[in-house]
Structure formats: structure tokens, C-alpha cells
Amino acid sequence: MNLARKELKEYLFLLPVFSIITIIFAYPYIRTFYLAFFNVRFGVPEMHYVGLANFANLLASTTFWQALSRSFVWAAGNLVIQLSIPLGIALLLNKKIRGIHFARALVMLPWIVPAVAIAVCMRWMLLPRIGIINEILIRVGVMDQQMHFLGSTATAMPTLILLNSWKFIPFGTLLILSALQSVPEGVYESAAVDGAKGFQVFRYITFPLLGSMIWFVGFIAFAWNFNIFDLIWLTTQGGPGGSTQTLPVLIFRTAFRTFRLGEASAMAVFIAILLLVFGILYFRILAPKKI
Amino acid sequence: MSALRERTSNKILSVMLICIILLLMLWPFFHIFVSSFKPLVEIMGRATFFPQNPTLSSYETLLFARTPVRDFPRFLTNSLIVSVSTVVFSLFLSGISGYGIARAKRLKSGLITRMLLLFYVFPTIVLLVPVHRMFASIGLHDNLFSIVVVYTALVSPFCTWLLVSFFENIPRDLEESASLEGASLFTVFIRIVMPLAAPGLVAAGAYAFITSWGEYMFALVLISSSMKKTGPLGLATFTAEQYIEWGPLLAGSLLIMLPVFVIFLPVSGYFIKGFTAGAVKE
Known about the structure:
The structure holds two protein chains of two kinds.
Chain A: H1 2-12, H2 15-35, E1 38-40, E2 47-49, H3 53-60, H4 62-93, H5 100-107, H6 109-112, H7 115-125, H8 132-140, H9 156-181, H10 185-193, H11 198-227, H12 230-235, H13 247-256, H14 261-286
Antiparallel strand pairs in A: 1-2
Helix pairs in contact in A: 2-14, 3-14, 4-9, 4-11, 9-11, 13-14
Chain B: H1 2-35, H2 40-44, H3 57-64, H4 72-103, H5 105-109, H6 111-115, H7 128-137, H8 144-168, H9 172-180, H10 185-196, H11 198-214, H12 217-222, H13 231-238, H14 246-281
């Protein structure tokens, strides 16, 4: 009796955070699944049950399939950059040098800065003629004519991937860095005694120990990038010619520009299930098991 | 001797590489900063690295040429109200829950608590339509309170995790001796636990502030009248105009970034530690 009451008291503490999460995350999340079966109009409370019509529309829509494949290109492109570069930076920032804590804080800045500010300024910096990036690339000799990076279908996606990676690299670095710091000092010392040199230490000691962390960062990076909306919407709105229209952008456009809320919900259900299944498969099959 | 020399040269190489990386990562901010002092002619003309005739005209246009739909000081005030409210609410909620988790071993390793980590990767885009309808149906659409509630939910899972690690380091004896002397649980929490966890509260508060200060997607969906726009939302509407005046936009971006830098740099140590604590334990 007493024990049960004590346990109940412990769980009471969880109430504040879990009630707000339930209201803002859990309930709407489930509600999306429900709305996907209705014809929902903007600003009107009444809804009409339409069965699987919303899903059928999706599967028949080329816009949807294009957005889905673009989402994968977007997530994969970001993932490659965001797994490789942070590893290098984290290895550097793991050294014991004076002022390294300040360097670690500075590296974080692109990550904590509001996406709006970055999107606005980068649009200006990436413009042809006016933009400094064109100027630099031409002066260095990488290009010989001005480019409209965000305005052409060929360059918009790669440019946005680089821009988004710049913003995410600090976070990946942070996670890998913390994994590096959990490697006990003694491991390196005994390796040094055995005569292991720089790259060998990395290849046979650091890298295997980092393994599970890199898989973890990989999943976070994939899920986060897949869900990115603000940076794309604020720079290209999915254009030009739909070339950067990923699923989140399409969901927003369908819901709040063409006001087909039911169809948007069907797409949201698709994303919710996709990420869930991907997450389960990822950690069950792909990721290395802990020893 | 040669080993020592090798180590020194290695160190110099690392320092140089770190400086290059910092330069590449941070140069855009520097360029935006100096460019915000360029006159409009230079901003809209061929790109230059530094202003030829520095001026404050971009800031003047942004802050003093106010119209009801382009009222940047008002947008910033709204953002401030929203962010401070989010900090207060989220610290209150996650303070209680974080303390509970830190004091109960069962909870800390339990499934429910670990579920909080799921919110690192939660697809918030899925929530847009239902959350919009929910607030519209209870008449809270276009109300700053609605985004405060959403932001509180967004930041609370991480704030809780952050606070758990701080509460854990407070010796239990202190609390126990206080309750032996007749202090209630509430008094113990307010008088003893909270002050000792102050650095944690500062770090969690900084996270809540930074996140809600810069959030765009939910503000875009939940706020519609120009009087109630937040800073990010207001800034974004400027870019949708026919003819974009980049000068005030750069100045506005800078004013939005500045508080984030000022708040982040002093607490970055706690912040970085807290963000990785949950992940590494996993």
C-alpha cells in the first residue's frame, strides 16, 4: 500500500511535461491519422468522410511522388555531408589546446541561429551580380560567369543542401565530440605504448568506439533533414519549377495554400509511418549491436 | 626531443586547421554584419567585401520607417513576450518533472522517460494541420498564447533532460535535513533545490528562449494579423514583397541573431554538455 502510494507520487511528477506533450504532440499526431480519411476544408468545422480517397489521390499524383523522391535526395545529400565533415571537426576539437572551449562554442553558432535570418541573408549573398558568393567563386576561378544559384532548377537543390548542412554540421560535431570524450584516456595511452601512430589509432581504436554514436547521429540527421521546412520555404518556397519541393513543403502548400487539409493529412500520415518504420528497421537491422 | 618537436608541430597544425574551420563557418555572419552598414546603393549593387561609405540607414529604415504592416520593433516585442513566457512556462513544467525523474531511479531508466528522447526526431510537420484546427476551434487562433503553448511543448522534453542531470548533483542530505526540520516538499523544492540547480535553470531557460525566439513554422500557421507577428515571421513577410529592399532585411536578420549569440555564448558549456548527456547515455 505504502509502496504503491510512493510510486504513484513519483509518477505525479511526470504529469506537467507529459500533459503538455500529450496535448501538443500525441493528440494531434493521432488526430492526423483520423483527418486523413475526411474531406476537410479550411476554417470550416464540418468534415465529410471520404474513406481512402485522399490516399488514392496521393498515389495517383505525380507531384507527390516527385516530392517524395526529392525528399530522399535531400535527406541523403545532407546525410553524406553531415556525417563526414563533423567527424573531422570533432577529431580536431577533441584536442587539448588552450581556448578549445571557446572554439567549441563558436562552432555551434550556425546551428543555434534562427533559420529565418540565415535564409534571408543567404538569399541575398547567393544572388547573381549582387551576391558575394558569385563574386568570390569567380575571382577564385571556380566559375567564369554569374550564376543564379537558387533560381535555376539545376543548382537550387545542391545549394540548399550545402546551406542546410552548414547549419547542421555544428550539431553533428557536438554529438560526435561527446562520444570522443567518453573514450577513456587510458585506451590511447596503452595504444601509444604499443607504438600505434596517428591514423592507426583512429582506424583501430577511435573509429570502432565511435561506431554506435555515428549511427545515432546518422539517424537524427536523417529524420531532422527529412522534416526540414523553414529553410526551404524561406529561400525557394519549393521552386524553381518544384525542384526543391520536398514532402514537408508540399504538405504545407497543400494545407495552407490550396486548403486541401485532408490530403495534407494523408501525406503527413505517410511521413509519420515512413519515419517510424525507417527508425525501427534502422536500429533493428542496420545499426551495429552493442556488445 | 624529436618526439616533442613533432608534438608541437602537430599542435600548431591543429590550431591552424581549427582557425580555418572557424573562419569558414563564421565568415557569413561577419559579412552580414559589415554589410548591414552599407548604404542601399552598395547592397543592391555589385558585391563588395566592405562598405565604402558606412551608414546606419538600413537600421533607421527598419526601426523608424514604421507602418502597421511593417512594424519591426513591434514584431521584436512580440517575440520577446513569446520567448520570455515560453521560458517561464517550460522551466516550471520541466523543473517539476525533471526533479521527479532525478529523485526516482525507477523513472530515470524507465521507458516513459526515455520516450522524451524521441522528441529529438519528432516530425513536427505532421502536427501542422491538427494543431491549427485545434487552436482555431477553441478560439485561440491568431493569439500569441497559442504559440507559447506550442513552444513550451517543443522545448520541454529537452529542458527536462537537461535539468535531470543538474538535480542529480544536488546532495540528498540537504533536502532530507530540511524536511526533518519540518519544511514541506514545496518549500524544500523552492528554497533548496531550485537555487542549487540555478546553472541548469539558466541553461534550460537559454535553450527555451533561443528555440522560441527563432521558430518560424508554427508562427506562420498560427498567427495571421500583422500586429501579432513575431520577429522571424515579420522578417519573412518583407521578403515576399514585389521589390525587396535588402538593406533593412540584413539589419533585421542581425537584430534577430544578436540576442541568440548574447544568450548562447555564456552558457554554451552547460548547453553542450546537456545536449549530449541524453544522447550518450543512450
